[in-house]
Write the structure tokens for this entry.
Amino acid sequence: MNFNEFYALYPRKQGRRAAEKSWQRLSNQEQQDALEALPNHLEYWKLKQTEKDFIPHPATWLNQGRWEDELDMTVKVKEDKSWMATEAGIVAKAAELGVHSMGLTYYQLKEKCLLVMAKKAMA
């Protein structure tokens, strides 16, 4: 098994020497298992849109035997909440939801929109 192969694929390029030492401590079977599991982890991090700062350093991944982790490959669609950032967005969301804005502050209107959305999600 080749450490360079592993390191070339691994997305976070930090602590190369530590990772190489960790690699050398693994048995041949563990090295092979880690190499075989890495593509699934790469896909998982991509699927979950994991920022690089939240991907373990390669030495950590190896030391902790993370190639044996169970990965939840289902995707939860993240709700776009950018509408809450501006008054225009709040008004547009209220119109989309059929929420009347008469006499409400933007804060109250936003809260009302959130309540309507929560009720729809529960239905």
